[in-house]
């Protein structure tokens, strides 16, 4: 068994899709509670049971000082960087906008977006599925779900990416100043207009029996603006890539569409688009056979946990025969993703749509980047082509 000191140079910001799984396998097998000296020092949990336990235990593993590592300036996101009972109040503002009924109501809209994007992609003979589908779909969804304008959402990917390079040296508040300006402009537009949508409803929201303050509203809207698109883009890219690399899998899903939701869960587990988030210990904690002192930053690696072979046999394989239930791609416990039902719906509709078209394949090798902000991992480009349909086939 290695000691926590064997991984002192581990830096989750430099993970790539190519190196991340072997890195985590080594940590999980030899030192499941490791310590890195990077970014001011932090611990890394990589076993399924340990990550789940820490995600559940909000008393010992707090989010209130921020869930990013490093986290200059402390916790600022609502509801991510809060603990119960405050968290419960804030989270309500999100769950109201994303109830299962609301997601069901959105289905025709989502299907329309998927059809439009994928039909255009097919008509042009394929292209970069990240730029043409995976980036655009979650942004369009944000216009409907919250009420942001198309001009606002069009600016989000570049501004979010830029903020990730800044958070190593400045607070999230400073790094996201431009996103804040966009959100302020949206609040102004909604206050002065007669638009009725989720954002206009949030203007009159209550928190703990009192009207929401302006700064709280800005932070709620910033979370809607940032939490929902990069994660979903990376998940959509992962699903398309998995399909493109495996024609037999495409045929199977076409023949047995009831397998599609399970396929989506497996892709989420295997790719883990939100790879990890942090906590701070509020007391001395025993976990995974080690003692972590009070006041330490701890990274909960959802990605490593999702590849723990003691929980998922042959973890690197998308296996339609297993139930991926209990995977941690959306986190676990009180902070488990509020947008999960919406993201799942987008993913399922996309796979259904692709299965109604000729087979896709890789037109060139996709490019993958490093973890954005130490959290998000996905493909930067995904060149896709459609198989020519020969006469006499039904596709
Ligand atoms: C496949 C896509 C997505 C993935 C992989 C993902 C992943 C996650 C994860 C791992 C967490 C847990 C954070 C923690 O434990 O600290 C989380 C929380 C959250 N997600 Fe997602 N997410 C996705 C889509 C979305 C969407 C579409 C939205 C909104 C429209 C959204 C909004 C949020 C919010 C607001 C939280 C904070 C919840 C809380 O602190 O209670 N996410 N997400």
From TrEMBL:
Pathway: Antibiotic biosynthesis; vancomycin biosynthesis. Keywords: Heme, Iron, Metal-binding, Monooxygenase, Oxidoreductase. The keyword Cell cycle does not apply. The keyword Oxidoreductase applies. GO terms for molecular function: heme binding; iron ion binding; monooxygenase activity; oxidoreductase activity, acting on paired donors, with incorporation or reduction of molecular oxygen. It holds the Pfam family p450. Involved in the coupling of aromatic side chains of the heptapeptide of vancomycin. Belongs to the cytochrome P450 family. This is Cytochrome P450. It comes from Amycolatopsis jiangsuensis.
């Amino acid at each position: 068994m290695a000691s926590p000191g064997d991984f002192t140079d581990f830096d989750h910001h430099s993970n790539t899709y190519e190196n991340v799984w072997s890195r985590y396998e080594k940590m999980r097998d030899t030192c499941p509670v490791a310590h890195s000296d990077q970014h001011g020092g932090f611990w890394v949990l990589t076993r399924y049971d340990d990550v789940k336990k820490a995600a559940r235990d909000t008393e010992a593993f707090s989010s209130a000082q921020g869930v990013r590592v490093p986290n200059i300036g402390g916790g600022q996101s609502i509801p991510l960087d809060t603990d119960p009972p405050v968290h419960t109040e804030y989270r309500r503002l999100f769950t109201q906008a994303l109830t299962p009924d609301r997601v069901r109501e959105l289905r025709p809209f989502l299907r329309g977006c998927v059809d439009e994007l994928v039909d255009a992609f097919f008509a042009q003979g394929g292209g970069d599925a990240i730029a043409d589908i995976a980036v655009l779909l979650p942004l369009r969804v944000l216009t409907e779900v919250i009420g942001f304008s198309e001009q606002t959402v069009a600016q989000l990917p570049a501004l979010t990416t830029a903020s990730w390079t800044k958070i190593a040296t400045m607070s999230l508040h400073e790094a996201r100043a431009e996103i804040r300006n966009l959100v302020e402009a949206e609040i102004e537009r909604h206050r002065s207009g007669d638009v009725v949508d989720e954002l206009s409803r949030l203007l009159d929201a209550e928190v703990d029996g009192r009207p929401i303050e302006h700064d709280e509203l800005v932070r709620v809207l910033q979370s809607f603006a940032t939490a929902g698109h990069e994660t979903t883009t990376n998940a959509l890219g992962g699903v398309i890539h998995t399909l493109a690399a495996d024609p037999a899998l495409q045929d199977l899903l076409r023949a047995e569409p009831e397998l599609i939701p399970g396929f989506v869960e497996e892709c989420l587990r295997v790719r883990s688009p939100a790879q990890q988030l942090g906590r701070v210990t509020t007391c001395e904690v025993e976990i995974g056979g080690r003692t972590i002192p009070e006041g330490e930053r701890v990274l909960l690696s959802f990605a490593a946990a999702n590849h723990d072979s003691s929980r998922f046999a042959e973890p690197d394989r998308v296996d339609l025969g297993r139930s991926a239930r209990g995977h941690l791609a959306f986190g676990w416990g009180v902070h488990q993703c509020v947008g999960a039902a919406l993201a799942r719906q987008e993913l399922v509709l996309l796979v259904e749509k692709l299965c109604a078209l000729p087979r896709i394949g890789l037109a060139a090798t996709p490019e993958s980047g490093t973890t954005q902000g130490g959290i998000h991992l996905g493909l930067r480009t995904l060149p896709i082509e459609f198989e020519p349909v020969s006469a006499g086939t039904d596709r």
